[in-house]
Design goal:
SH3 type barrels, 2 helices, six-stranded antiparallel β-sheet, 96 residues, alpha+beta
Length: 96
């Protein structure tokens, strides 16, 4: 559950898209996330700032299933994710 996790972030990368997960480490542009999900498409927010703060419309967005760990090598921005936003992201299923 999102309320028990710590360091939930959204990471925008140069060429690998947008990811959500628990921040494990960050060194320069390399970011490691645990329980990571790719946010493929979102609705209900205009920018990633809003995604991180208020979340997404779960019924109109597309988020992958989680992977245990991902290493992102070209992070452009890392946004802390609110508990409310984390709940909406975690509730979203993949929708073609």
């Amino acid at each position: 559950m999102a309320s028990k996790k710590k360091n939930q972030v959204i990471v925008r990368t140069y060429s690998a898209g947008v990811h959500y997960g628990s921040l494990v480490s960050q060194k320069g542009k390399e970011v490691v996330l645990a329980d990571a999900r790719r946010i493929w498409r979102w609705r209900g927010a205009n920018t990633l700032h809003e995604v991180a703060r208020t979340g997404i419309a779960s019924d109109k967005s597309a988020v992958s299933v989680p992977v245990a760990k991902i290493v992102l090598t070209e992070a452009i921005e890392i946004l802390p994710c609110s508990e409310a936003a984390a709940k909406t992201i975690e509730a979203t299923k993949w929708q073609p």
